[in-house]
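Quick one: co-fold with nicotinamide-adenine-dinucleotide.
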Amino acid sequence: METTTQSGATTLPPRITKTLIDRLTAMVTAGTAGEKREPFEMIEVYTGGVVGELPQSSPEDVVAAVAQARAAQREWASWSVDRRVAVFQRWHELLLTEIETIADLIQIGCGKARRMAIEEACDPAMVASHYIKTAKRVLKPVQRGGYMPVISASTEQHRPKGVVAVIAPWNFPFAIAMSDSTPALIAGNGVVLKPDNKTALCTLFGVELLYQAGLPRGLMQVVCGGGPDVGPTLIESSDYVMFTGSTATGRTIGELAGRNLIGCSLELGGKNPMLVLDDANLDDVIPGAVFAVFGNTGQACMHIERIYVHDKVYDEFVRRFVAAAEELGATAGASYGTDPEIGSLVSVDHMEKVASHVEDARVKGATVLTGGKARPDLGPAFYEPTILTGVTPEMTHATMETFGPVVTVYRFSDENDAVEQANATTYGLNASVWSRDLAHAKRIADRIEAGNVNVNDGFVVSYSSKMTPSGGIKQSGVGSRHGDSGLLKYTDTVHIGVQKRQVMAARAAMPWAKQLRTTLLTLRMMRKLGIR
Ligand code: NAD
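Sure, here it is.
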């Protein structure tokens, strides 16, 4: 398909046909009720060419979508965990079979490099695989002893919440939308997904594959629109909200969830530090830092924006890091092939925001060691890998999330100062510590205020370990994903207590003084024997 627009012709891969785009956009719940909205023009980031029109949901459409998901959820919740999980076993295989199409659709909306799109496409398969393996154990009722052995029993049950709203950002649109919906569905819920307009196509394809895998019709709905337009209605109508996005929006989502008295999980922004200790092996650190800073063109919540390097290795680090960033930048390109190692930013607007942070730093006295320029020759939203030094607190980039291929390098000579600097942020999402001495690096890691700390890695080692919960602390989030808690958060814990013999009734006739003596004696005995 070739579409000519004012901005230029698209360069879509042959797999991405108009028929596919029309089929996917028809899945959005829109135009069923309420005032009809103007569709959103979807753009191929590499060219600025128009790819198609995305229907926009009205608040009434959102209510209808939640109602449909709720109707389908009742039966889904009655299925055994094994039967639900079987859908995800089939989906896992479909994801791997369709990986190239998924990557195409991710790249169209994000403009990221092919390898990154493929890595992103693998994430939901990894999450599904983890919960396929663990869901039955985690969701099964747990028999607890009652308050009094023998005569009472107590069971902990995990019931699906009902309908979960999943609100996803544009930076890993497929991974986040699908990987967060997966445990919500496996736990027995319906899902109403709100992707970002710019990157909705890949998520719609993921949902189509779920239906192909046998998900009951209607259980997963997709609504599209501006966040403030559809978000409040979605949250008011749902039973839980899983949000990933900026800290500013997260605050609004938390307020809406609080007003509605529903639970929420908020995965938010970061200003993530890396510490390079004096004994770090620079042969590992340099490629590690290049990926941690510039991977996904710097648009990863866990990516590194501040690097603290020990005096002893600072000069060599800076020389080699600058050379590596320039080498990476030389591969940049707009391509659905694997040659470019770095792609575009998501939009011209975002590129201008990134450029403004660099400009602000430059004007206030920072040094741009490399980069610092847009690359309109490659595409409308390309920006060079950029390394700064001399960044001081009054510069925007010092404390605010830039969310682009921009990093500042700082020198330190005292590790305690470096830890203090690393923690001097309102955020607490991710951090990275490099040293040949693992025990020492782990001791430093223990002192870093972040929800994820990676030793001798930027962020992949913690994000890819699906068995351990991962989330932000401080202003980087509330709750976490992955691990047992990443499934249980989508359930209500219900306590079923059973009184096998009514002892209270039997004691009603007993004089109060005797009742009290018996109660105190029982409490002492149970403590002594360690029964309760
Ligand atoms: P954003 O907060 O602008 O938008 C995220 C989503 O929320 C979008 O779908 C948007 O349409 C929607 N939204 C906006 N206002 C809303 C409202 N009032 N009600 C309901 N929905 C609303 O974030 P973004 O710019 O799309 O994403 C980048 C941010 O996300 C960065 O700060 C990044 O660090 C963060 N992020 C965090 C994680 C994590 O796991 N911690 C992962 C990826 C991205």
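If it helps, The mean pLDDT is 96.
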